[in-house]
Each structure stands twice: as C-alpha cells, then as structure tokens.
Amino acid sequence: MSYRLYYWTGIQGRGEFVRLCVEDAGAVYTDVARVEGDDVMDAFIAGEHAGALPFAPPFLASGRLVIAQVANILHYLGPRHALVPESESARLYAHQLELTIADLVAEVHDVHHPVASGLYYEDQRNEATKRAKDFREERTPKFLGYFEKAVERGGGKHPLRAHSYVDLSLLQVMAGLHYAFPKAMAKQTLPLLRDLARRVADRPNVAAYLASERRLPFNTNGIFRHYPELDE
Fold it and tell me: Range of 43's domain?
C-alpha cells in the first residue's frame, strides 16, 4: 500500500498533517514535489489528470483516487491504517474534530495575512497586529479549550479514547502554536493537550520522523509563523 502526496516544497504547511498520519502508520509514500518539483502539481490543479479535481494541495493519490482537503484525506487514511475507531459515530466525530482543526489552521494563517493571501506580510503588518491580539486573547483559548475538553470527555488521554489521526493533528497544532506564539501559549493552561502532544511525539514512528530530515523546520513561509510583534 503506497501513496503519492502532493504539497509545496520548503514548508510544512497543511501537508504536514498528512505526513504525520502516513509516517505514524508506517505507510510507504512519496512526497512527490520534493522529488519532481512544485510544477508536478499543475496538471492536477488544471484538470489535465485523471481523477477528482483538487482545488489546491495537499492532495493524495492512492491508486486511481485523487483525494484533496486535509480532513478528507485523513478521513480516507484513518480506517485503512487503524487510526480511527470502527464505529460510524466515532469516525464522524473524528471527522468533525479534524474539520474544527482545519478552521483553527485557517485562522492561524489569517493572523499574518488578514487582508489578502496575495500580499506580503509586510504589506498588512498593521492589520495583522490587530488580528493577532484577537487571536491570542479570544480565538486561541476558545479553540484549545474545546480540544482540551474533547480529550477530557474521551477519558483524559485521547479525544476518541484511543490513538487516532486526530491526536497526530493536535500534536502539529500544539507544535505550530508554540512556535508561532510562544508567549501566548505559555499563558495557556492545557494539561491534557500538552500531555497528549508529548505522548504522540514519543510514538516510535513519529519520533523517528520528527528527528529526520523529512521533517522540515517551521519557518516564516508556512502557516505557523513566528513574528515577535504578533506575540506581544
């Protein structure tokens, strides 16, 4: 069972949520653009390739299937690699949680690009400062408080009472927010989420991935960006 993952080179971005899943599963995959360059995605996005039409990366090719959107990709991968419980209710709940994570990731992006994605951060710095204050003081506690409660309701160890792809995504969220907003995150009281992130990072396949060259460092070209003026 092997996959071809398509995502931009040079950044973790949304592709990292998929990478963590396949790495934890020990699945065979190719990070295609890192081998062939970003242009390899053009035919898919232009509709010149067989399979469903993706709007933007990341997307995953599995046999003849082309699957786009992070939550949708993980909804597909989870059952194939025992990374989601078998019941329909649990799988729907996992998908719900992952879609909420996608909402949070979109808001993280909009902190440093509140006006337009096509403009540089430097062109919207003043607006970003205002957006960052609201994100730090209102949105971060709301989102992370929700996930903290989800872990508590799941028995204190996992939102779904067992390890799942949602745990892997929450690891990425916590790591990304600690990189982007270290001061703000230091003020958050999140014992269950912090413990979850530590345990997931210690899983053998995840730990090996995090220590490898495949795990690119966070940087100011990705979604989670550290600008000190936005963390004041």
Answer: 2-80
Q: Residue 6: phi, psi to the nearest 5?
A: -115, 120
What is the β-pairing status of strands 28-31 and 2-6?
Answer: parallel
127 and 62 in a common domain: no
What would the pLDDT profile of 124-145 be if each residue is shown by its tens digit? Answer: 999 999 999 999 999 999 999 9
Is there a domain that residue 117 lies in?
A: yes
Same domain, 15 and 63: yes
Tokens for 156, please give them. 């204190």
In a domain, 111, yes or no: yes
E strand spans, 32-151:
59-62, 65-68
Distance between the two ends of the chain, CA-based, in angstroms? 46
Task: Tally Cβ neighbours within 10 Å of residue 192.
Answer: 18
pLDDT tens profile 69-125: 999 999 999 999 999 999 999 999 999 999 999 999 999 999 999 999 999 999 999
If asked whether residues 198 and 116 sit together in one domain, one would say yes
Peptide bond into 54 cis (omega under 30): no
